[in-house]
Each structure stands twice: as structure tokens, then as C-alpha cells.
Amino acid sequence: MYSHKRLAASFAAIALVLLPAVVAAESSAEERVRQYFWDIPVMTAIAKCESEFRQFNSQGVALRGGYKKSMVGLFQIAPLHIPAATALNIDIKTMGGNMAFARHLYEQSGTRPWLASKWCGQDMPEARIVLDDETKIAMIQKQIDSIRLALEQLK
Fold first, then answer.
1. Nearest partner of 105 among 122, 84, 129, 91, judged by Cα
2. Any idea where the domains of the chain sit in the sequence?
3. Highest-confidence segment of 6-10, 102-106, 116-120
4. For 79-117, b where at least 16 C-beta lie within 10 A, e where not — what string?
5. CA distance 146 to 107
6. CA distance 47 to 52
7. What is the pTM of this model?
8. What would the CATH number be for the domain defined by 4-146?
9. How would you label 33-63 residue by residue, b for 16+ Cβ within 10 Å and e otherwise?
């Protein structure tokens, strides 16, 4: 039988593939971030601090900010991470790619890649939420049910 951690890891891998397609295109960037990072609420606080939930500037180009305007998008991904994103075939200039690579960074290093903005989000409720395994499993089951329903409607 799978352990809770294996189940959560398996679901995270599936979510990286399916969730961007499931999230409605009309959703606001903030809603998309909250849905994509339902299991890592602190990432919502990070996106708010880093970009105010903006992936694109007013010209529709990936947002640039930070040091020498070199950070990219919603999670202000640093240039030093671009080779790793490219190796994973993730385009951080898209919203889905920026979120997927931010998840990858979080899984590798926790919130360390965003330490410079820690002061901003530390008082946000999302920064303090820690979900227990039972809650995560219940939320995963709801998402599985939603995906199952969406797949049935495609038949």
C-alpha cells in the first residue's frame, strides 16, 4: 500500500501535467496560483510578493523585475535557474511554465529561492498554513473526482 507521502508525490506529478488544463482560462492569475498551489499555500504569498500575481506586463510580455530587471514572471524566476528550466523543457515565460518551475524549485529548495522577499509575505495567512496529511488526501480525492468527471465528459 502507498504511503501518504508517495500518494502526495504521485498526485503532484499528475497535477503538473493535468492541472493547468483543468484550471479554467478565465480564472484570474491569483485564482490559478491558489488552485495550482493548493497543497503549498506559502507559494500564494510568494507570488503576491514577487509580482502581485502578474505573469505579463502591460505589453503582454513576460514580466521582468528584480535585479537589473532580470527576474522573470509570476514567481520572478532568477536567470541562474533558466538552464535548469530549459533542461526540464519548461518555458518560464508562460504562466503555466512559471508555476511549474516554481513548484520544482520549491520541491528542491523550499522557499529559499525567494528569501529576498520573505519580509513581504511572512505575515500573510498563507505563509503560516501547514496542511496535515488527512486534509491533503481529502483535497487530492476531490481533485481526482473532478479530473475523473472531466474525463468522463470527454467520452
1. 84
2. 4-146
3. 102-106
4. eebeeebeeeebbbbbbbbbbbbbbbbbeeeebebbeeb
5. 25
6. 6
7. 0.67
8. 1.10.530
9. bbbbbbbbbbbbbbbbbbbebbbbeeeeebb
